[in-house]
Amino acid sequence: MKTIRDNEEEKKSCERISIVFIGHPIRQKQEFIIDNEKYKISFDGFKDEKYNEDPFIWNNNFLYSFCHANHALSTEIRQLINKEKEVYFVFVAKTAEDSDMFEIDTILKAKEIYEWPNKNERFEENLCSQIFNENVVKYHLPNLPGDGTISEHDNVKLYTCVGDSEGSFLPMVKSGDQYIPYKFNSKMSEYLLDLLKSKNSNRYYVAKESSKRLSEKHKIFEKVSNKVKILIMKEHVSRNRPLSNKRFLKGCQISELDNDLRNTKRSISINIK
Question: How far apart are the C-alpha atoms of 178 and 172, rounded to whole Å?
């Protein structure tokens, strides 16, 4: 049984969490079965090897390197991560083209920041092999033509955020006979859209507490962030006591699924030992 002290500790822990929202276009869907439970996840999609898949979830440690990363992985955020503060990157998208509802496809808890070699020195052999294994190089990274550059996002400074294997997850909620990505309700989706967009622009921006353009929207940011923090708390609880209507898929559960899924283009079934 939880005590008042336990609840207060959880509350204080959540207050120390930094949330960074990253908006994306509509995500691709993929179905599979794990331990006789059906999942329909949303993710960046399986792409040609010359393009990046980001965030990359088919790995024990989720990885994030490219999309909006020049803002999401700002100096301020990198410093928090390097100081071992709790930073969560929350990847969101509308559920469909004709929908105003937003879903969370991936929550990545930052473990460490990897700084890439300088521009023109970005050869595969210069990358950390503990992070960039064969599968990661092949699918997470864009093409490495062999001249020290990369085919996309070849910025002067480039960083990869390595996710914590236990604290990063795909938040899934029971819906009928399957689990689907967590969806915000209509009001929270409206708030989230307000955080992600600026006036006279259809593009999505990174939304974090320190964003100058959100200086008058702190209450809205707090409301949406609190929904994510509740999910994070529930994920913690589920490690010792599985929740009946929620699942939190980790990299270790799905890291070996993508090869079969890429080849078959259909759902597959596996049992986790």
Answer: 9
As a whole number of angstroms, the distance between CA 40 and CA 223 comes to 27
Single-letter code of the amino acid located at 55: P
Whether residue 119 contacts residue 149, with contact meaning beta carbons closer than 8 Å, is answered with yes
- Of 105-109, 155-159, 195-199, 234-238, which range is least confident? 195-199
pTM for this entry:
0.92
CA 244 centroid distance within chain: 23
Question: Which amino acid is located at 66 in the chain?
Answer: F
**DSSP designation for 67:** T
The span from the CA of 46 to the CA of 49, in Å, is 9
Taking alpha carbons only, the member of 198, 197, 191, 240 closest to residue 219 is: 191
pLDDT of 273 > 50? The answer is: no
Q: Mind listing the pLDDT tens digit for each residue in 114-141?
A: 999 999 999 999 999 999 999 999 999 9
Per-residue pLDDT tens digits for 40-67 = 999 999 988 888 999 999 999 999 999 9
Look-up of token digits 């960039």: 132
Q: Name the residue ranges covered by the structural domains of the chain.
A: 4-267
Question: Are residues 52 and 192 in contact, defined by beta-carbon separation less than 8 angstroms?
Answer: no
Sign of CA dihedral 168, 174, 180, 186: negative
